[in-house]
Each structure stands twice: as C-alpha cells, then as structure tokens.
Write a structure and sequence with these properties.
Length: 130
C-alpha cells in the first residue's frame, strides 16, 4: 500500500532561516514546501495538504500565531509548531493556550524538531513542548 510522506509546510519570512530549516526537515525524511509569508501559504493548495506547519512566530503581516488561530477559526486546523529567535514566556503561554503543538527556539535542534513533527502528525492529544 502506497503511503506518501506527510507534507510539512514551512513558513518563514527570513530566506536564510527558511532554507536552513527546509534542509533540516528534508534531512529528517519529510516532504516540505516553503512559503515566505502566512498569506502566501493561505493562498496555496498546501493549506489543504499539509500535515503540519512549522512557522516563524514573528513575521510581517500575519504572524505565525495569528495563522494558527485563523486556521482554527476557519475550521481548518493544522498541527502547528511555532519557532522563534526571540522566545519569551508571554508568547509561549499564548501559543500553548491557542493550540500550538510546540514552541521551539532558533536555531532549531534536529532531535527536538523531529520529536515535535512526529508528535504533531501522530494525531490525538499532543503534549505542548518547548
């Protein structure tokens, strides 16, 4: 039986961070599509195909947290991993209350990212991780 790899959508306005994370996600064995903004992602077919989002918290326009909330309110929730180079307890707590599955700090550690993606696409109750 053919079982395609889960598609991971990566959203980050920083091209160098986006490219580095894309290479990391691919090296972990996942298919990945990349976008420079939340709006670009929402206008794509990936919004209906992605098994998991890995999105930057801070971006011009719609932030990663706003994207997660938008998907929930439009009844298209996708497990979301927020990443940030500027972690703080307030945004972490808001992310947890908003249904984000993981809150990771850049630079990303491959083991932590892999565990977060696997937990996110595994379905069911996912403990919030940071």
């Amino acid at each position: 039986m053919y079982c395609p790899d889960p598609l991971i959508a990566l959203i980050d306005d920083d091209a160098s961070a986006r490219n580095a994370t894309r290479a990391l996600v691919r090296s972990l064995g996942f298919s990945v599509v990349v976008f420079g903004s939340a709006e670009e992602f929402l206008a794509s077919n990936a919004v209906n195909e992605a098994a998991c989002l890995v999105t930057d918290l801070r971006m011009p326009g719609m932030t990663g947290l706003e994207l997660c909330r938008h998907l929930v309110t439009t009844e298209r929730p996708i497990p979301t991993i927020l990443v940030t180079a500027f972690p703080d307890e307030v945004s972490r707590a808001i992310a947890e209350r908003s249904g984000v599955t993981a809150y990771l700090v850049k630079p990303l550690e491959s083991d932590r990212l892999l565990r977060s993606i696997r937990s996110s696409i595994g379905g069911g109750a996912v403990p919030f991780s940071s």
